[in-house]
Amino acid sequence: MNQFSELISVLLPVSSFDEYFPIAIDSILNQSYSNFELIVLVNGVDDHEYEKISAVCCSDFRVKLIRLNLRGLVFALNYGLELASGKYIARMDADDISSSDRFLKQIDFFSKNPNFSVVGGRVELIDENGNLLMKKFNFYKTNAEIYNVLPYRNPLCHPGLMFVRQSLIDIGGYKFSFMSEDHELFIRMMRAGYEFFNIDYPVLQYRRHGAQITNSSKSFTHFVEISAFMYMYFMRTLNAKYILGMLVVFPPFRYARNWLRNVISK
C-alpha cells in the first residue's frame, strides 16, 4: 500500500467547551492530507457542553464523537488508542492549532524513514488571542539529541506528535495518570530503543492561556508525581540526569528560574 494512502487516527480529548475548540477542530479537518479519522474523546462533560461539542463536530463524516466518563486524560487516551483503526496515531489538544500540512509532512517523513516510531516538529507558542509569543519551545531535531535530554526534560510537544500505532501498543500505552504522563511514555520508549525525530517544520501552534497556569498548591503535587517516575528510572539506570530532572521541576527552583528570566528580559 502507498504510504500516502495510510489511515491516520487522530486522538483529541476534550473535557470542556470553549472558544478554542472549534479552531482546533478546523485545523484538523482542513489538513492537506485527508485520509484520517478524528476520534474526539469527550470526557466528563454535562449534556449542555456535549451538545455544543457535537454541533462543531457533526458536519464531517471523518469525526467519531465518543462520550466518556473516565477520570483523567490517560484513561481517555488509552480508550481512544483501542478504538483507532489507523496505522498512525496523531495527537491533538482541544486548544491548539495544527498547521495545514502537518499530517502530510509527518507521513512523508515516515515513508522515507520506516525505522522511526515518533515524529514531531517545530512548535510555535501562542497566547489566548492567537498571537505569537517571544518565548520559544526548544527544538531538538535528531534521535540522539532527543535521547540526550529526555532524562531531565521533555523535548517533545505531545499534541504535535505522530506515532506508529503498533509502537504505542507494544510499549503498553499510557501507564500513569498524573502530570507529564507523556514524558514518562517517551522515557519508556527510549529505554526500549524506539526512535524519535522532530522535522524542521512548524507542525503546531501550542496555546498558552490562563487555564493552564499552575498555582503553588498544585506545583508541589506535580513535583511529587513527576519525581516519582524520575526516581524510578534513576534507580533502574543510575543515570544522574534523572536526578537533574527532579531538580528542574522542584517548585522553589522553578520560581527562582522564572524570576531570573523576568529580570533578564526587562
Structural summary, described in words:
By secondary structure, the protein is α/β, with parallel strands linked by helices. The protein has two domains: 210 residues, Spore Coat Polysaccharide Biosynthesis Protein SpsA, Chain A; 50 residues, no CATH class. The protein has ten helices and eight strands. An eight-stranded mixed sheet has the order 3-2-1-4-7-6-8-5, with helices on both faces. The relative contact order is 0.14.
**Biggest β-sheet: count, sense, barrel?**
8 strands, mixed
H/E topology pattern: EHEHEHEEHEHEHHEHHH
Note the gap between the termini. 55 Å
**Number of E-state strands:** 8
Global morphology: globular
Instruction: Tell me the CATH superfamily of the largest domain.
Output: Spore Coat Polysaccharide Biosynthesis Protein SpsA, Chain A
Oligomer: single chain
CATH topology of the largest domain: Spore Coat Polysaccharide Biosynthesis Protein SpsA, Chain A
| Rg, nearest Å | 18 Å
Low-confidence stretches: none
- In DSSP terms, counting alpha (H) and pi (I) runs of 4 or more, how many helices? 10
What's the level 1 CATH class of the largest domain? Answer: Alpha Beta
Q: Please report which band the strand proportion falls in: under 5%, 5-15%, 15-25%, 25-35%, 35-45% or over 45%.
A: 15-25%
Summed up, the domain count is: 2
